[in-house]
C-alpha cells in the first residue's frame, strides 16, 4: 500500500475534555539557579521521576492510566517529592499505547509536572467525545487524590493548576476537553487532529491559552487540514509552533505501520518538543515568568527550528 493511501486511511480513522498559594519558586527550577539563567528545557529537569499504574474512577468514568510524578527517588511507586505539583492530562494518538509517550511523561515530571495518561479509547473505533471526558476525569481524579485518605498523592496536587495535552487524536480530544472544563488553566498538544465532534468548533469556545505544536512534514494529520484550522478558530491567547522538518510519528517514542517521516530525526524532534512544551507549561502552570521570552518573546519568534504564529 502506498504512503498516500496509508495517510488517507489514518486521516479517515482520526476523524470517524480550592486554590492554593503560588509556590515561592517555579516547581521545576533547580535550587540556587540565578535569576535570568537560561535553562536547557530539552534536558531532564532536577526532579527524580516516579511512576504508578492506577485505576481511575471519577465523573462516571473508569479506566486504567499511568502517572509520572516528581519523586524522592526514581522508580515504580516511589514516594512523591515534597511540595504540591501541577497536573497535565495527556491523550494518546489513534491506536497508540501510552507507552509511546513515556519519554515525554518522564520529562514533564522531571520539571515538576504530574502527568497522567489514560489508556482508554485505544481500539479501532474510539469515541473522541468519550476520550475528552476521560481526560477530564483523569484531572478530577488527581484533584481528589490530594485529599484522599492514604493516597500517594495526598497533599501533593496543586489543584488550581491543571492542563490538557495529547497527540493526534488525543490532541484533538484535549481541545474538546478544554471546552468542557472550566477548571483547566492551559492546553499544549502535539499534531492535534480534527475530531468528531469537531475540535475546531470546540476551539472557538475555548478561552484558556492554547499551544498547538505541529510538524511541517506531517503527512498523517498535517497543519493545513488540522492544526491551522484549530488555531484560526481559537480565541486568543493562542499559539501555533511548527517544527521545521517535523513529522507526525516523530512525536512518539517509536514508529509503526503507516508512519510518515521528516527531514529531521525523531531524537531531534523530541528534543525540540520537550523544550517548547516545557517552557509553556512552566510559564502557565508554574508561574515561571522567566519563560516569557521562550514562550512569547524574541527567542520564540526567531527560533530557526520552530516557526511561530501566535496572538498573546
TrEMBL record:
Q: What is its EC number?
A: 3.1.1.101
* An example molecular function term from Gene Ontology annotations: hydrolase activity
Q: Where in this chain does the record put each PET hydrolase/cutinase-like domain? A: 38-250
- Group of enzyme by EC: hydrolase
Please provide the record's keywords in A-Z order: Hydrolase, Periplasm, Signal
Q: Does the keyword Hydrolase apply?
A: yes
Note the Pfam families from the entry.
PETase
Its localization reads:
Periplasm
List the catalytic activities from the record: a butanoate ester + H2O = an aliphatic alcohol + butanoate + H(+); (ethylene terephthalate)(n) + H2O = (ethylene terephthalate)(n-1) + 4-[(2-hydroxyethoxy)carbonyl]benzoate + H(+)
Keyword Hydrolase present in the record's keywords: the answer is yes
Coiled-coil spans are none
Q: One Gene Ontology cellular component annotation?
A: periplasmic space
The protein's name is poly(ethylene terephthalate) hydrolase
Q: Which organism is it from?
A: Planobispora longispora
